[in-house]
Amino acid sequence: MKTCREFIWSCSLFATIFSISILLPACNQQKGNGKKTVAFVTNGVDPFWVIAQRGAEKAGEDLDVNVEVRMPPQGVADQKRMVQELLAQNVDGIAISPIDPENQNELLKEIAERSILITQDSDAPESPRQCYIGMDNYTAGRMCGELVKEALPNGGEIMLFVGRLGQANARQRRQGVIDELMDRSHDGSRYDEPGEVIKNDKYSILDTRTDDFDHPQAKANAEDAIANHPNLKCMVGLFAYNPPLCLEAIRDAGKLKEIKVVSFDENEASLQGIMDGTVVGTVVQNPYQYGYESVRVLKALANGDKSVIPENEILHIPARKIRKDNVEEFWTELKSLLGDSVKKDPGQTVNETTKSAKKTDPGATPDPSYPQQQKEPQKDE
To answer: Which pTM was predicted?
Structure first.
């Protein structure tokens, strides 16, 4: 005869088995409904990524795909945690912008082993990723260098600002600017180590200041450059939040007429600066298309269709220059996409970013071809 303890244990075991028998069919039904789940993982938090999120979500609607978007606010460790959570959910594929590809190889291998790996925005060509989606960052850097030449036709001292140089996109953009200003040949494999002045008979690139996505530090870097280099003529911000913070530092120092700003990406303060004449121009990507194409490619790969991968495993989405003559048209396109969802503060938190994105009227989402392709011939195509 069973003891009371044995009886209770038997009942508990029966209840557990019964619960599993109820839950398993529901899980299998959800897993077997044919709808894929893919993830889009950014390298940080910025309004730039809100645009990409909108593209990814629109692709999810159009292609009947569940889309998970993750924006790590705390760097490499946070990105790894988010990726491992997604892998635990058995997502069908992950499109990631690696923060430090050389030191994240194990994580990228884990994604490829347990799911489908593609990179977007910033590449990791030595990883087992199936393709890269984004612009040619080296060519875009040279386009940025061309804007610097327009700002300083007679030459001058220049300082570069960027979040971190561990990312491939940051290194390539920086090198593109340097090579363009030094009138070098087109070579994306070239790399000048930071810390030394790089100059020719017209331009002197004094240094490259990094801030690790710390916005107060980014502004402090700009203030320090202004204070220590009285002949500084141009500040180049290679990540979206850098130019507005440079502009703040220049304004605080009373040098708006003395120091030019050249920008990357489509931060509202940078676009307003172009309209006001305090920013020469900016090189913009197409983050909306990054999100849309990432979801499209991941869904196809999850269904066994590898025809979506180009022969060179790179799906280039061209960049374009925004100057005073086309900034109003571009900004109208941008507002039609985001409405009031992006605050002007470049230091927005991930929760604020996510909430604001969801508040935007879905009816404002334009065609996935936004922004319009650059009309000039592309060097990287």
So the answer is: 0.72
